[in-house]
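ARCHIVE CARD
CATEGORY: sequence design from structure
SOURCE FIELD: tokenized fold
FIELD CONTENT:
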């Protein structure tokens, strides 16, 4: 069996790909999980808000993700570096153009745009803006594996959950 997918990418079941995931997991499980979701196209773009050195960037690139480090500032004026990654150059450029060298803010407009870029259902984003962490119909495990807070009657999140669960389970096994 070939380690390449039909488009030339590493197959997620290949030993090489699994090794990269294990190395990402050593840095942080959540980083590896975001990378897997993004690599598989479940999330169009992801952001890592903790420091990431060259090794982490290289691992993301080895699993066919484009990376960019974006300078931002917090309210105190301190500079922070966010690492963004995607398979789509347009997502990287759009994030960088919109948020590069800007203060971090949590306005409704920003949250809606980030939700779009990160692949969150718009109904969940809008509900979260109005009423953060409102009770929903998900189990604790289902909510835990998402990167957005689902709204109570979301029609999109239940269709995303199997893909999230598959990626999460694969990562736990490797």
């Amino acid at each position: 069996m070939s380690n390449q997918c039909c488009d030339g990418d590493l197959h997620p079941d290949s030993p090489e790909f699994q090794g990269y995931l294990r190395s990402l997991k050593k840095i942080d499980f959540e980083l590896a999980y975001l990378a897997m979701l993004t690599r598989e196209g479940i999330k169009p773009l992801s952001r890592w808000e903790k420091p990431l050195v060259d090794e982490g960037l290289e691992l993301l690139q080895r699993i066919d993700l484009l990376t960019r480090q974006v300078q931002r500032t917090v309210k105190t004026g301190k500079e922070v570096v966010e690492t963004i990654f995607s398979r789509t150059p347009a997502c990287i450029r759009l994030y960088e153009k919109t948020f590069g060298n800007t203060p971090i803010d949590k306005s409704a407009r920003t949250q809606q745009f980030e939700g779009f870029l990160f692949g969150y259902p718009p109904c969940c984003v809008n509900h979260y803006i109005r009423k953060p962490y409102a009770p929903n119909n998900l189990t604790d495990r289902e909510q835990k594996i998402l990167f957005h807070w689902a709204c109570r009657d979301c029609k999109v999140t239940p269709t995303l959950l199997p893909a999230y669960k598959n990626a999460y389970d694969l990562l736990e096994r490797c």
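CARD ANNOTATION: Residues 157-173 form the longest helix (17 residues). The chain has eight helices and four strands.
SHELF: design records, drawer C
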